Amino acid sequence: MKNNNITALFIGFNRSYTNPTTEVILRLLGHVCKLSYFGPGFSDENSLSIGIDEWLKNQDSFDIIITDSYVLECDNIKQRKKPFWGDFILFNPLDFYYYCDSLQSFFLKYSGDKIFIANFDTYGIKKNIIDRLISSNSFVIDGGVSTNKPKELVELAYGKPSIGNDNWFDFVHTYKHKIIGLPHCISSLEFDFTSLRMRKNRYNVIGAPYEERKIAFDLLPKDIKIKKAIQYYKHAIAFRLNTTLTERHLLKMRQDYMRNISDSVLCYCSGGPWMSPVRKYFEIPARGTVAIGMECNGFEDLGFIDGINFLKAKSNIEISKIMSNVSKSELQSIADMGRELIWQNHSDFARTKQLTESLARIKDKTFKGSYWNSGKYLHN
């Protein structure tokens, strides 16, 4: 499905994060167009030393320039105590400080088509970053489906002021004609087709300790609680002792995470106080596990249907009732339908088709934004 008529250049830093979203997006772009890379960890020392402007003089022209948050908000990253915390980096850390400003400057001044991969926590984005993005006149690959203002959701859910803001919500709704609305994508290698009857855990809770997940955690058997607590503290200690991840640690974390899902019949799913369609909404069904929990922003638009491919439950009482009343055959049917939804609409091969259509529209100047409706990816 690759369109070699479209050439693209990613400028940035070669790294992996515990959440593989950026890696998957770059692989997708490599599938749908002729993709090249420039930046620390991608380029040789000579190419880096002469700078991107000089390097481009010896290259064929590119239809699209692509970057991500490590370039767009590099000034914020430089101010962090641990700038690469949680990353497995494949570049010299000093190169980030040496080259990031020039890459950002190039991206902002480039007059051709550009795409920004919004791979940051959007609920707390500062206004200056939004203004910078607007001035860049970029198209944006955004993984969220925002139907409600996140600040209001936090205050409604927790009864206290939100630590976030509505800057990103306002941006994507004002500039919807620039938004490539592609939520998290699941690689075909991540799918699990094991029957529910082969799984050892009836119920599990994964992910960061959001308030609602802490509550759902109470339903876990005591032995699993102990194991998860030990595992959590091991990871926490490792993170505190190290500013970056080793490849071995990264792969181990990802493997353990996926195994925790695959070993379970039901797995709690939530998007935190902002009700974001986080990767768990796609990972859990892809592993053939029944997703149970709270609906996210864009729940029905993304194709989720309560009782068909997802089980909605807002409290432990509701979860317990479902666990007692839903039969094994019904659970297997929901698991199968959930996996099918992700396979057909949110897998890498599905995203390849969706992204191909959007890039073609960008190239011929007809792209006016995209959106989701009942699990279908559509263009304005």
Characterise this structure.
The protein has helices at 21-32, 45-50, 52-56, 69-72, 74-78, 93-109, 127-136, 150-158, 167-174, 211-216, 222-241, 247-262, 280-286, 316-325, 328-345, 348-363, and strands spanning 3-11, 15-17, 33-38, 64-68, 87-89, 113-117, 139-142, 179-181, 201-205, 264-269, 290-293, 311-312, 370-373, 376-379. By secondary structure, the chain is an alpha/beta fold. The chain folds into 2 domains: 3-185 and 347-379, Rossmann fold (3-Layer(aba) Sandwich); 189-345, Rossmann fold, CATH 3.40.50.
Summarize the structure.
Helices cover 44% and strands 17% of the residues. It has 16 helices and 14 strands.
